[in-house]
Amino acid sequence: MQFGIFTVGDVTTDPTTGRTPTENERIKATVAIAKKAEEVGLDVFATGEHHNPPFAAPANPPVLLAAIAAQTERLVLSTSTTLITTNDPVRLAQDYAYLQHLSDGRMDLMLGRGNTGPVYPWFGKDIREGIPLAVENYALLHRLWREDVVDWQGKYRTPLQGFTSTPRPLDGVPPFVWHGSIRSPEIAEQAAYYGDGFFSNHIFWPASHTKQMVQLYRRRFEHYGHGKADQAIVGLGGQIFMRKNSQDAVREFRPYFDNAPVYGHGPSLEEFTSQTPLTVGSPQEVIERTLGFRDYVGDYQRQLWLVDHAGLPLKTVLEQLDILGEEVVPVLRKEFAALKPAHVPDAPTHASRVAAAGGAHDTTVYAGGDDVTGASPDPRGTTVSTSTLEVTT
User: Fold this and answer.
1) Residue 188: helix, strand or coil by DSSP?
2) Is the pTM of this model over 0.85?
3) Domains along the chain?
4) Rounded mean pLDDT of 136-155?
């Protein structure tokens, strides 16, 4: 199982000091946080994509991730998320394939619709078409990584004739894709259709909602013939703040929670932690809460935490990473490994996918993978359905 962190890159005033970091400070701090994540033994660092204040998360995540790749050796670099709706699939295919080469395969990406309304018209899109955009754009991206020459025509961009995206994927194996969603069953369906991973943000909603979304994805993953439901590739988000004593953690984190740009000035910290996976307390409480996620999503492959939100100073964030690396993740690795059945796959890596592709027969479809003949599924002219909605392209 992979453990790591993700950032939304917010530039937020520290409510305890009144100081707001500059964008330069926040960006440089993000690199320091990623390097620290590798130092303490975490597996993954993921960055969001934002185009508006108060965020300094990159508008083009591969720029940040390439810089981190040059300063790390083992860390898997990912996104949380890449906007499949407002980015051109051709540019995504090229940028992330380039990052794949620069990082020697130490990367994957999470695709999402994005829920910031003003972003859509900035890029000439309509938020009311978010689901159809996600379906069509990914259908094209999927083909660009698997076909050397693409002829394509759709609704949301100009046609392609005899187009070859460069560079080609490293070792002929495209980056692994997670489809991230908080509330959209259509995205869980899309992930299942392609046999890709499904990532539930898992921060703002109760466990019952996350359970429903993951169960839908697992059922449909099996329906499309990619493996048994419990072999589907699942990732979860989360948010934590830890100190040795729970009371100290609550006291220190409360002003940051109360003034957070996303959930501040709403429910109390106690209400939020009781109704969502946010965990503020001791390392043991984080261990127990995280192990409990398995009770309602089953065996899963990736756990990412948000640790640098709401104006927390860099020193505090680095302390959180030390606690994760020293006291929390080693226990979780052992416990989750002991619980996982042998037939449930590990998180896909570039090396494992290259090996699977090399050893497969002509028509093999492997878990979390693609038809190794290159004849990948394409929803053009098909219906991507969920229990509540059908999206036809």
Assistant:
1) helix
2) yes
3) 2-392 (3.20.20.30)
4) 97
